[in-house]
Design a protein that fits this description.
With about 260 residues, the protein is mainly alpha-helical. It is about 80% helix and about 0% strand. The protein contains nine helices and no strands. The longest helix is centred in the middle third of the chain and has 31 residues. The chain is globular.
Length: about 260
């Protein structure tokens, strides 16, 4: 399944980057964000295939990274499927979304049962705090944009720039992803099984999503936009997430799952 997903994601990403017809109906801002996501998707494909190979060999650590990559792809392709004008890749977007979602659903249970205990220590706490801080940071950013607009009875300027009525990123983040960050981080600090299990996948998600945001900002910078402060901020989030997840996974006992 990882091979099929990787192939479809690679095709959609390359098409989005080289074929101007794919985002021809989007605003320049939204098309640039989509192409940044396309670049992030190519990185995710590499991570997915490497992690899947090691997971197939029995590595639970790789399985948790693989799970986080599937979370990222589900998120990304929800956005493609509902917030990009209908184009020739629509059914491909839906296929990636469905395959990624069902692959994750079928593997969460077995992987969760196979995951051995995590050791206590600084790495676990640091990873939990990174995840909680990231959730609070982005929730604050989105709410600082949405609340004044709602109070004033006007849509945020970012919606006009993107040509959207509602930004699906706000919806998914505020309803599922950012609460998931905070709940998992708090659960990990309290040694709850659900928090410890989801900590690594959410950090992988944060790392990949941050990388796609940085890619989009670099494309915007090429077009003359001043995006240095947010690029630096998100780059820090990417680096912190990467360091935190690998330090956290090192505390996992080296048990392999039954193949």
């Amino acid at each position: 399944m990882s091979g099929v997903i990787a192939l479809l994601v690679g095709l959609s990403s390359v098409a989005g980057l080289v074929d101007p017809r794919v985002y021809a109906q989007e605003t320049q801002n939204w098309a640039t964000q989509a192409q940044g996501q396309d670049l992030g998707n190519l990185l995710a494909v590499i991570v997915l295939l490497v992690a899947a190979r090691h997971y197939q060999k029995g590595s639970v650590r790789a399985g948790l990274i693989w799970l986080g990559t599937l979370l990222y792809l589900i998120y990304a392709f929800i956005v493609y499927a509902v917030a990009v004008h209908l184009n020739g890749l629509f059914l491909l977007y839906v296929a990636v979304l469905g395959l990624s979602a069902w692959t994750l659903i079928f593997h969460v249970g077995p992987l969760r049962r196979a995951t051995p205990p995590f050791s206590r220590g600084l790495a676990r706490k640091a990873a939990a705090y990174v995840l909680i801080a990231t959730g609070i940071l982005f929730a604050g950013l989105w709410l600082s944009e949405l609340v004044p607009a709602l109070v004033g009875g006007q849509a945020p300027a970012s919606l006009a720039d993107a040509g959207l009525g509602v930004n699906p990123i706000h919806v998914i983040d505020l309803s599922m992803v950012l609460p998931g960050f905070i709940i998992s981080g708090v659960g990990a600090l309290r040694s709850r099984e659900h928090g410890l299990f989801w900590l690594a996948p959410w950090l992988v998600f944060s790392m990949l999503m941050g990388a796609s945001i940085v890619a989009a900002m670099l494309l915007m910078a090429q077009a003359g936009a001043d995006v240095i402060p947010p690029t630096v901020m998100v780059s820090v989030v990417v680096a912190a997430s990467a360091l935190a997840v690998f330090a956290h996974l090192r505390t996992l006992a080296p048990r392999t799952h039954p193949r």
